[in-house]
Amino acid sequence: ELPHPSLCVTTGDFEAAAKSALPHRFWTYVSGSANSGLSLKGNLDDWARIRFRPRVLRNVGTVDMGGSILGHKTQFPFYVSAMGTMGNIHPGAEPETVRGIVRKGLHGVISTASTKTPDEIMDSYRREQSQVGDASPSVLFFQLYLPTDREKAVALIKRAKAAGYQGIWLTVDTPLLGKRTADRRLQAIEALSMGLEQEQTPNRPIGGENSLAPAFGGRDVPGQLSPHTTWEDLKWIRDAWQGPIVLKGIQCADDAKLAMEHGCEGILLSNHGGRQLHTAPSALMTLLEIRTYCPEVLDKLEVYVDGGLRDGADVLKAICLGATAVGVGRPYLYALAAYGSRGIERCTDSKSSMLRFGVLRVTLLTTFKYCRKNWRLL
Ligand code: FNR
């Protein structure tokens, strides 16, 4: 018996609910990370190391948390990250998530490796939009795992465009799949119990990022970036897409600069939720590196962060340090697993209420925009 969703106040509460709701196999897949988990742990620990420097007696009677993502206004400085095969997590898969997203007026990024097709997901978005009237500012973006075959890649990009996605999040941190230790262990146990001994090759786990359920109902889409991709390819990807591109998975200042020089509209500082490279920098470390060595990137590009941001305080820290907005991954999957679209809504409320009341009123400056400019690190 799951607790009532209103009892879920923190990400930890959703996590506990999801753990009891999900079959062990899928719990392992969602909560898992690469190797011994150091990248994931760093994501969580690093945000906690930053402290607020409270100012008092400022007028915080009205707080505007709003901003925009690729020109699309949002009342929240966070969005739902791209996560594949949601059909493993909830029978309603991505459409179930999208219902919650639209009802809350959130923005969301839809994975190439989704259980449902880009068109099916967009259909559910439109259906929900018509239910809530024209009130929801919610917009969907498309996360691209670039297929190796260029014709297939162009077809996929055009399909996403035709479906109505408003931007591409090109995932660049996955030319090889990370070593998902817990998944591997589980697969080895299952194989042994069937009397098989599985062969494992380095850098290539049996299965992969999204291998548990076939994406797109088994249709032909990749679950990783074509390993042949280079900066040169951005040109034809842009020609095919004809719209804004965000590089997802930037992990150092040099690549942030290259993204700027190649005309990308945005970058997402991310180590894929600690699921890819072992001992990768957290988004916070990369953000601080950019602030030090090429702060102009923060003026010229939209700079997103994700990985380990678990409550409103973390989101606030990221915005104060110059991020445009924040991607939230596992917390939303946990909420989906336990409560479906209602969980997506509740998880949003729990974050924004912390932002609005818990943090700003008690400890911070006047408005979001004000504190963005006036932040100092201790
Ligand atoms: C992901 N992520 C991901 N990223 C991507 O570009 N394409 C994908 O298909 C997926 N799939 C996926 C599945 C699961 C189960 C997880 C947990 C993550 C990475 C995701 O977009 C994001 O970078 C991280 O999840 C952010 O970290 P937190 O918020 O989960 O700590």
From TrEMBL:
Transmembrane segments: none annotated. Belongs to the cytochrome b5 family. The chain holds residues 98 to 475 of 475 of the full protein. Residues 3-378 form the FMN hydroxy acid dehydrogenase domain. It comes from the Eukaryota. This is Mitochondrial cytochrome-like protein b2. Its cofactor is FMN. One of its GO terms (molecular function) is oxidoreductase activity. Keywords: Heme, Iron, Metal-binding, Oxidoreductase.
